[in-house]
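Researcher: Let's continue the batch. This sequence belongs to Rhodanese-related sulfurtransferase, and it's 103 residues. Same format as the previous ones, please.
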Amino acid sequence: MSQIKEITPQQVEEKIKQNEDITVIDVREDEEVAQGMVPNAKHIRLADIPQKVEELPKEQEYVMVCRSGRRSMNAAEFMQGKGFSKVQNMEGGMLKWDGELVF
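Model: Same format as before. Here are the structure tokens for Rhodanese-related sulfurtransferase:
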């Protein structure tokens, strides 16, 4: 069983509205992201996470996002294994997101 905390899309939206210091990372493919992303999200495809993770500050709080929550959970578990302690997965992914989208 995963040790990754899950956060609801509504909680993510609230953190964004409150200007909390979180980084949302969208691990979907380019064509999926073209359909809209969480505001201020950083797009790093799942396949690129192993290379890009070295560029990310470990002390930052991250919320991982994909379409349904499965790929982002894999990314979150990978990051946790690399020493990132503040990584959460957005429950249900973009399928459950009903907030604002950016293109």
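Researcher: Any comment?
Model: The first strand starts at residue 5 and ends at 7.
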